[in-house]
Amino acid sequence: DAGITQSPRHKVTETGTPVTLRCHQTENHRYMYWYRQDPGHGLRLIHYSYGVKDTDKGEVSDGYSVSRSKTEDFLLTLESATSSQTSVYFCAISESRGNSPLHFGNGTRLTVT
Amino acid sequence: TQLLEQSPQFLSIQEGENLTVYCNSSSVFSSLQWYRQEPGEGPVLLVTVVTGGEVKKLKRLTFQFGDARKDSSLHITAAQPGDTGLYLCAGLDYGQNFVFGPGTRLSVLP
Question: How far is CA B73 from the centre of its chain?
Answer without folding.
Answer: 6
